[in-house]
Amino acid sequence: MSNLDLQQYNVRTDLALEAKEIAEQSGGGSPIPGIVSKTFEDNGITITELEVQNEQGSQAIGKVLGNYLTLEVPELRNQDTELQDRVATHFAKHFESFLQRVGVGKTARVLIVGLGNWNVTPDALGPLVVENVMVTRQFFELMPDQVAPGYRAVSAVAPGVLGITGIESSEIVHGIVEKTKPDVVIAIDALASRSLERVNTTIQIADIGIHPGSGIGNKRKGLTKEILGIPVIAIGVPTVVYASTIVNSAIDLMRGHMAANKADNNQVFGLMNQMDERERLQLVKEVLHPIGHDLLVTPKEIDQFIEDIANIIASGLNAALHDAVDTDNVAAYTH
C-alpha cells in the first residue's frame, strides 16, 4: 500500500462547487486561501459564484484559475415548466455577465460547440443544445442587409467523439475557428458529480474553457483560449455519478440514519467510523476496481431530464446572445 497512487481514489467531480466542498471538509471546514465564493437563493434557485484567484486555491480544489457560477435547482426533477422558464431566464442573465467578463460585445460572432456522443443519452447534452439554439450566421453571410437589429452571427456544431469520427473534437473545433473566425466559443458538455441530488438539476458556467480530463467524454485535448486564441466559455451539467461515489454516499446516509435513531452504529460499521471520506472511497474503489464495477450511473429518467435541461440552456443562450429575444421572458424559446 505504501506505493499506491492515491490520486485515483479522489472523489470524482467536475463541479468546482463540489471540489471546494471536498477541500473544506478535508481541511476541517476552514476557508481555502485563494478561493472566494458567495451563495444566494432566489425562489428555489440556489446560485453560487466562485472565483479561483491564485495557484494555491487552484491546487487546493483541483480547478483552473477563473470564475465559476453554479445554478442548483433540485425541483427541476418535477418537470415544472414554469420553473424551467425561470431557470432559463436566470441562466440567460448570468451568462450575459460572463460574456461581458471575457470582453465579448453585442456584435461579436459566436461559435457554439456541443460536445459529446449523441448516441449515448447521458453524453448527448451538447448535441441536443445545438439542435435547439438559434443559428444566424448564414443570414449575416448571405443577406446581411436583411438581418433585423438585435441579432448577432451565431454558428453551431456538434463535432462528435473520437470513436465516431476518428478525429479529436478539439481538432475539429480548431479547424472551424481558423476558417470561420468567431470571436468567442461556447462549449457545452456533460459532467460527472459526486452527488446524485445534483445530477440533471445543476448548471455550471465557467470562463476557463474545457480542459483535458473534464466532462465524461474523456477528451484528451482541451478547448481553451490558449489553444484556440479566443475566449472559451464552458457550460456543463452533471448527468452521471460514479458507482463508487454512490456506495460511499450510501454508507454516509446509513450512518446518519442510525445516529438519528440513536443506534450504536459502531457495531455495524466498526473501523469505517474512524475513516474519513477519502479513505472510505479508497476502500470502495479497491473492492470495485478489480471486477470492473466502478460504473458511471445515471437516473432511469435521463431521456426526459436531458431534453428538459438542454431546452433550458438553449433558450437561455438564445436570450443572452440576441437582444431581440427578451431576457425576462424566454418561455417561448423553452419548449
Automatic annotation (TrEMBL):
<keyword id="KW-0645">Protease</keyword>
<feature type="propeptide">
    <location>
        <begin position="1"/>
        <end position="14"/>
    </location>
</feature>
<protein>
    <recommendedName>
        <fullName>Germination protease</fullName>
        <ecNumber>3.4.24.78</ecNumber>
    </recommendedName>
</protein>
<dbReference type="Pfam" id="PF03418">
    <property type="entry name" value="Peptidase_A25"/>
</dbReference>
<comment type="similarity">
    <text>Belongs to the peptidase A25 family.</text>
</comment>
<comment type="function">
    <text>Initiates the rapid degradation of small, acid-soluble proteins during spore germination.</text>
</comment>
<dbReference type="GO" id="GO:0009847">
    <property type="term" value="P:spore germination"/>
</dbReference>
<dbReference type="GO" id="GO:0006508">
    <property type="term" value="P:proteolysis"/>
</dbReference>
<dbReference type="InterPro" id="IPR023430">
    <property type="entry name" value="Pept_HybD-like_dom_sf"/>
</dbReference>
<keyword id="KW-0865">Zymogen</keyword>
<comment type="subunit">
    <text>Homotetramer.</text>
</comment>
<dbReference type="InterPro" id="IPR005080">
    <property type="entry name" value="Peptidase_A25"/>
</dbReference>
<keyword id="KW-0378">Hydrolase</keyword>
<dbReference type="GO" id="GO:0004222">
    <property type="term" value="F:metalloendopeptidase activity"/>
</dbReference>
